[in-house]
Amino acid sequence: MKRHLISAADLTRDDAVLILDTAEEMARLADRPIKKLPTLRGRTIVNLFFEDSTRTRISFEAAAKRLSADVISFSAKGSSVSKGESLKDTALTLEAMGADAVVIRHHDSGAPHRLATSGWIGGSVVNAGDGTHEHPTQALLDAFTMRRHLGQGTGSDLAGRRVTIVGDILHSRVARSNVHLLSALGADVTLVAPPTLVPIGVGHWPCEVSYDLDSVLAKSDAVMMLRVQRERMNAAFFPTEREYARRYGLDGERMARMPEHAIVMHPGPMNRGMEITADVADSPRCTAVEQVTNGVSIRMAVFYLLLGGAEPAVSEPAAPALTRTEESS
Amino acid sequence: MDSNSSTPARPVLEAPDIARVLTRIAHEIVERAKGADDVVLLGIPTRGVHLAHRLAGKLEEITTRPTPVGSLDITMYRDDLRLGPARTLARTDIPGDGIDGRLVILVDDVLFSGRTIRAALDALNDIGRPRAVQLAVLVDRGHRELPIRADYVGKNLPTSLRETVRVQLDEEDGRDGVLLGERSEVGVPPAEGRESETTPVGEQ
After folding, report:
1. A114, A135, A162, A176: the active-site residue
2. Among candidate residues B179, B157, B178, B168, the one with its CA nearest the CA of residue B47
3. B92 in Cβ contact with B120 (< 8 Å)
4. pLDDT over 50 (residue B192)
5. What pLDDT score was predicted for residue A78?
6. CA dist., res. B69 & res. A152, Å (int)
7. Degrees, nearest 5: CA angle B181-B185-B186
8. Which of A6, A47, A10 is nearest to A314 (CA)?
9. Which of A6-20, A76-90, B132-146 is predicted with the least confidence, judged by mean pLDDT?
10. Residues A53, A57: Cα–Cα separation, whole Å
């Protein structure tokens, strides 16, 4: 993990396991009467959202507040962005206000990278989803959820686990981040989608591709359903929604073909009746709500590891984090 | 650490000594807590947790009742977090019945500046409201920077700031012992069992 979290591809297996283990400790905070830690007191975190979001924005805000950071939430609607202010000028404004970290969601792929590498700001940049590129904290919370259900617990990865990601891969930043992260954690990933929704160059990704959902269900430990992103579609990618649902939607009958231990995941928001039926979405095997809970723990872990010390916990070249038994001389 | 120092570390407590002082501390706890009915032992990772489990065993031998034992990670409450990279978190594990209204005894290996215990008191504050909080340490090496003292001390060990105290426990290091050596500039992996109290400010 560098000073920023822009892409899941930047994370090594050890980085990812460290984040998951740290999140495991953060999750225990939920059982306490006071769900707050003093660790980031005096730090300022800015949520910079140029795109609509419910879960992610609230999740980042809750994570920062639970670590006692000061949080400034900014959404493009109603801000000077609507008057034509550029990303650079917005960033310079944030820098002038002393932001220690900027969480950015942007409709343009690459915006967080630009923010992190431009020199406009001195703090850490966390990518909360950029266009169709990446959404690393979503992949981390997905991996965290999988490890809790399928893994060996703290310190373990997802080696040998088979994860199937189904749906609109072409427009999905969640799928991209998950492919990178899950393969780093040793999982075998299979993407399932209609050919029109599979991106060009997928052959270079560390995963398999299938066009037949039924053929992979029986050997999946986790099945992740993706929302069809109509807002990003500028062409006809499949004949009808009904046909899409029939071929690539997860219903009770298909879920019954999954192994007993297998879980159904969804990053949200769900299109019930499209990629997932209501009975599957509401079944105890569906972890969608749990993923939201885990998202707060993961984002707390990311904030702690990026901002909790004088420098990120894992930097390049990778240096092991100190333990309490080492003196701080 | 000591392998690089000019004079080799000398043992100040051996395995039988550690067993003996823990037995004594257990008896002192039973005496002061009038039977130790409501005692909860919370070890401060890493070696404090092992010591807490050992103390719980000794208490059970004396009282014939199991004593709840857990761990309390103070990393997120440290006052020196920003002096180095973010530290790996250890496990906080509070016994099922909680700590409200109980006598919590914090257990650590070395009491030094007192900053670790200050952090532990802050952490406890967020977890519950004990009836009282006491502190048991294997070694008190002095050099306090805060008005904190131990209620139960295995060994008072006057030291200079140029010296280091290394506690080794079988569960963590493969052997029991407390070594007194000279401080070296070379960092040592945690497995070699360095003292767990933070260095006083004057040393930083």
Report:
1. A135
2. B168
3. no
4. no
5. 62
6. 24
7. 90
8. A10
9. A76-90
10. 6
Phi, psi angle pair for B190, to nearest 5°: -60, -25
Mean pLDDT of A15-35: 93
Q: In B11-137, where does DSSP find H-type helix?
A: 15-32, 47-63, 115-127
Confidence at residue B189, expressed as pLDDT on a 0 to 100 scale: 38
Q: Which of A56, A90, A164, A287 is catalytic?
A: A56
H or E element at residue A215: helix A213-217
Q: How far apart are CA B166 and CA A44, in angstroms?
A: 38
More confident residue, A96 or B54: B54
The answer to whether residues A302 and A140 touch, using CB atoms and an 8 Å cutoff, is yes
* Helix, strand, or coil (residue A239): coil
Catalytic: A35?
no
pLDDT class of A73 with cuts at 50, 70, 90: confident
pLDDT of residue A147: 97
State yes or no: is A196 an active-site residue. Answer: no
CA A286/CA A283 separation, integer angstroms? 6
Report the pLDDT value the prediction gives residue A258, as an integer from 0 to 100.
96
CB contact (8 A) between residue B188 and residue A37: no
For residues A148 and A216, give the distance between their C-alpha atoms in angstroms, rounded to a whole number: 22
The residue of chain B with its CA nearest to that of A18 is B88
CA distance B113 to chain A (A): 11
Give the CA-trace dihedral at B154, B158, B159, B164, to 10 degrees: -10
Q: Decide if A135 is catalytic.
A: yes
Q: Which amino acid is at B165?
A: V
Contact assignment for A324 to B45 by CB distance below 8 Å: yes
B198 → chain A, closest CA residue = A327
Residue among A200, A151, A202, A159 at smallest CA distance from A182: A159
Task: Compute the nearest-CA separation of A276 from chain B (Å).
Answer: 38
The sign of the torsion formed by the CA atoms of B84, B86, B87, B93 equals positive
- Relative to beta strand B132-140, strand B103-111 is parallel
Per-residue pLDDT of A217-256, as tens digits, reads: 999 999 999 988 766 555 567 778 888 889 999 999 999 9
